[in-house]
Every structure is written in structure tokens, then in C-alpha cells.
């Protein structure tokens, strides 16, 4: 009897990120700084990837181009099925919406808005139905149901980062980018934030790219990638 067909072995896995020969040069014409020097990098949908490397090696810059916050100078970038290479800044901003969630070291909450408004207003601008209901549910999911009307200045660092995580996850993105999300927090708070990011990512089935200096956190990820001087080196996780 012939073997039963194997499960999708002939199909390539779906890629959340496909970056090829990506270059980024900033600075002035007289003093250009080559920041990314030909990055090749693919991430399968649904996997978690830790991005390590020395300070100044280009980790945040790489994340910025992959998240559509910065335009690369050369190479090709496909993220969440979209070709970022050909997009201008407005198109990138639209492309991010609902597809990409971003969590940074400095929480970047709007100081004049409550926790609830910080999460709800971007949803409202994106035309999502019931933005305040969604925002409330997302804040409850990160353990902040009792802090909805607090302003950022009235929240601890860990609580502010939880609001930022709720904001990043509320639109149910396919890909989450996190740049040293525990860098401003004490160790215990940092651990709870990491657990939260992994839990929310699992609930969404999202791809995760996380920049960290913490080898223990890197071990939690499916893959570990190291940057050196604007290029990537990978080792098996
Ligand atoms: N706008 C800019 N103009 C010129 N050089 C820049 C600019 N932004 C970043 N750089 C340089 O690019 C290099 C990479 O910076 P990047 O922030 O990506 O590093 P990183 O790996 O994230 O470092 P860290 O671990 O300290 O956060 C650094 O040498 C930095 O000085
Ligand atoms: Mg950085």
C-alpha cells in the first residue's frame, strides 16, 4: 500500500519576515555611517527569535527597518506578506497597522492620556470597532483592569510597560517586535513582563522578534541570532 501523503512537506513554510541584502546608511553625505551591511534573514511565521549582539552592532536599526519604522537603503524586505521595499513612509505606516506590534525599552506612552486612552485611541484611529471595549479587554489581559483611568505618571515602570504591551497587542498583530522591553525595569518586574509577552504572543499565535542582552531570555526563544558590526550571525538555539 502506498504511504499516506505526508503533511505539507513539499510546501515551503510561510515566512513572517524575509530580508535579503538589507543595507542602511545614516549620517550625512560627508560622514555616512554604514549601519546595516547586507543583512540576510528569514523568520518562519509563528516562531520566536532572540536578537543579541554588542551595543552599536545594529540591532535596533534592523528592527526599525523590519518594523517599517525606518526605510532601508537597499535590499529587499517582505514582512507579513507585504513588500516593504517599494513603500514610502505613509504606506509603511498603513502597512504596520493591525500587522505589527512594537514594544520598546522606553514605553512611549502619551502622558496626557489615561491607560485606557493610550490603548484605545490607536484602535479608534485604525477604524477598529468598539475601540474602548477592546482596549479594556486587552488591559484586563495584562492585569491592569484596575488602572484604566490612571495616567502614565501615576503608574509604575512595570505597569507602564504593561500598557505598552496592551497597546501593541490590541490590534492582534501577526508580528511582535520588542526592543529590550525589560531594559528599564528591575529583574523581578522584567521577568513578569517577559512572561506576559510570551503569554500574549502564544494567545495570538504571533511571530516574535525580541532584542535582549539576557542569555536566559534568549534560551526561551526558538532561535537565537547575533549581530556583529551590521551583519547577522546565527547559531542553533
Ligand atoms: N541617525 C543615525 N545617524 C548616524 N548613526 C546612527 C544613527 N542611528 C544609529 N546610528 C549608529 O548605528 C549604529 C547601530 O545602532 P543601533 O541603535 O542599531 O545599535 P544596537 O545594536 O541597537 O545597540 P544597543 O545595544 O546599544 O541598543 C550605532 O553605531 C549608532 O551610533
Ligand atoms: Mg538598541
Automatic annotation (TrEMBL):
GO MF annotation list: ATP binding; ATP hydrolysis activity; transmembrane transporter activity
Protein keywords: ATP-binding, Cell inner membrane, Cell membrane, Membrane, Nucleotide-binding, Transport
PROSITE patterns xref list: ABC_TRANSPORTER_1, ABC_TRANSPORTER_2
CDD domains linked: ABC_MJ0796_LolCDE_FtsE
Keyword Transport attributed: yes
Record flagged with keyword Isomerase: no
GO cellular component terms given for this protein: membrane protein complex; plasma membrane
Domain named ABC transporter: residues: 17-237
Organism superkingdom: Bacteria
Pfam families in the cross-refs: ABC_tran
Family under the similarity heading: Belongs to the ABC transporter superfamily. Macrolide exporter (TC 3.A.1.122) family.
Protein name (Swiss-Prot/TrEMBL): Putative ABC transport system ATP-binding protein
Organism expressing this protein natively: Sphingopyxis flava
Amino acid at each position: 500500500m502506498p504511504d499516506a501523503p505526508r503533511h505539507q512537506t513539499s510546501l515551503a513554510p510561510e515566512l513572517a519576515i524575509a530580508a535579503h541584502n538589507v543595507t542602511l546608511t545614516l549620517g550625512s553625505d560627508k560622514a555616512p555611517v554604514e549601519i546595516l551591511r547586507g543583512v540576510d534573514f528569514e523568520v518562519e511565521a509563528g516562531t520566536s527569535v532572540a536578537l543579541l549582539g554588542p551595543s552599536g552592532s545594529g540591532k535596533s536599526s534592523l528592527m526599525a527597518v523590519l518594523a517599517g519604522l525606518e526605510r532601508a537603503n537597499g535590499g529587499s524586505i517582505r514582512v507579513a506578506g507585504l513588500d516593504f521595499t517599494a513603500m514610502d513612509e505613509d504606506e509603511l505606516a498603513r502597512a504596520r497597522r493591525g500587522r505589527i506590534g512594537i514594544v520598546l525599552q522606553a514605553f512611549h506612552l502619551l502622558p496626557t492620556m489615561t491607560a485606557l486612552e493610550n490603548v484605545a485611541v490607536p484602535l479608534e484611529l485604525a477604524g477598529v470597532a468598539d475601540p474602548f471595549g477592546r482596549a479594556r479587554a486587552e488591559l484586563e489581559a495584562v492585569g491592569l483592569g484596575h488602572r484604566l483611568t490612571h495616567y502614565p505618571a501615576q503608574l509604575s515602570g512595570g505597569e507602564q510597560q504593561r500598557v505598552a504591551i496592551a497597546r501593541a497587542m490590541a490590534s492582534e498583530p501577526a508580528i511582535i517586535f520588542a526592543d529590550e522591553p525589560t531594559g528599564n525595569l528591575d529583574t523581578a518586574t522584567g521577568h513578569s513582563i517577559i512572561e506576559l509577552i510570551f503569554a500574549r504572543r502564544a494567545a495570538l499565535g504571533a511571530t516574535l522578534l525580541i532584542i535582549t542582552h539576557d542569555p536566559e531570555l534568549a534560551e526561551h526563544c526558538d532561535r537565537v541570532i547575533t549581530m556583529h558590526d551590521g551583519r547577522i550571525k546565527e547559531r542553533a538555539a
